[in-house]
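Hi, here's the filled form for the chain we discussed.

Project: internal
Contact: R.S.
Residues: 224
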Amino acid sequence: MSMKPMEFDRRYGELDQVISAYVGQPADDTPEAPGTALTAYLRHTWHTRPWALAVAEQQLRTYAQNPPGRLRQRLGEYYPVPDIGLPEDGIRDWLLLLADHIRRSIEEGRVPPPAAVPATHWEWHARFPELGQLLGGWFSQDMPDEFEDHEAAVGDYAETVHPALVARVVGELGELLALGLEEVDHALGVAELGMEVDPPAPYTAGAWLTEVARQLAGPRAEYA
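And the returned structure, exactly as it came back:
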């Protein structure tokens, strides 16, 4: 029988956050320094949920020291580490290496400085979660079949999503635009956050995000 969500989170919730940070990234950590993915996890977590770092260190170490048997994996009672390009017999040492880096970061106060541009797919979504919901949910490749245009899609989001979430995405748009990114980074960002269609002509990605923020911050119909 698979674990219930509360039990999963208690045992593996933060471990899963760490492993998810490696989606599309190599496990390039060395004993001397954390790799790109772990650095992104450390940077975001230090600045948003610093208390979770100790939980991550403990869950990583416990998992590495108590590897799952095949029966427990088949019953869904254990967290299966996704394929990250390492041989199976190297997973345990890698998990312990991550735990060591996190412990060292905590004990020595090694806080990665804020980055203007998120370094990984995971970091884009961790930093701008509601914007990812908007771009990935309303601007997939099916958007032209579902809405008349980009403005209609934004309007549908504003009318069907709770006002608190609309306000949150406006805040995330403000944070992203305040970074003063180059246009190539805006284009990278909307793609990483799930947008599968081009901005409407003649807008660049950054200019269109500015227009979306303006549209969402204005008066809107009552939430249904």
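Let me know if anything looks off before we file it.
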